[in-house]
Design brief:
This protein has 159 residues and is an all-beta fold. The protein contains no helices and 11 strands. The strands form 3 sheets. Strands 1-2-3-6-5 form a 5-stranded antiparallel beta sheet, with no helix packed on it. Strands 4-7-8 form a 3-stranded antiparallel beta sheet, with no helix packed on it. Strands 9-10-11 form a 3-stranded antiparallel beta sheet, with no helix packed on it. The mean pLDDT is 79. This is Cell adhesion molecule 2.
């Protein structure tokens, strides 16, 4: 709903104030939250008058009372994520024209593990062919060799 109010001063000034119901969105600091990481959710609200303060809930109830979860103004901060933080977080903002809310489903992924260095040799390198023979004479060059069941012979001349 959009409402307008007009006030005049000295017959020359006109002031227009547009009132607007709230609209909210949640901005997250991580795309893929993992255990042990820091995560900040910000509830961005727009409207006139400004919809302050915003209210955060988890799974339809109050936020858990943990030292790791901090609410400051529009921000909900997790200082060190763990699996118990999984759930649906809701941000709600109101002014006298209405209420708006949006949700963010948090799924905390396992922390990445460091794999030990591989002891398996690479698959692509080809060892040198021990059967290659090189014989040269003053005017010609002959190279012979075999790889598996194939025998190769190359001849050339030296100038």
């Amino acid at each position: 709903m959009l409402m307008c109010s007009i006030t005049t001063y000295h017959l020359f000034k006109l002031s227009l104030s547009i009132l607007d119901a709230p609209r909210v969105e949640i901005i997250k600091s991580l795309a893929v939250p993992q255990e042990g990481q820091y995560l900040k959710l910000e509830c961005v609200s727009r409207g006139n008058p400004s919809p302050d303060p915003v209210m955060w809930t988890k799974d339809g109830g109050e936020l858990p009372d943990l030292d790791r979860i901090i609410v400051e103004g529009r921000e909900l901060t997790f200082t060190s994520l763990n699996k118990t933080d999984n759930g649906t977080y809701r941000c709600e903002a109101s002014n006298h024209l209405g209420t708006s809310s949006t949700e963010y489903v948090l799924y905390v992924y396992d922390a990445p593990t460091t794999l030990p260095p591989s002891t398996t040799p690479p698959l692509h390198p080809i060892p040198p062919d021990p059967t290659v023979q090189l014989s040269t004479h003053a005017s010609d060059l002959t190279v012979t060799g075999s790889r598996g069941s194939h025998h190769h012979l190359a001849r050339g001349s030296w100038n």
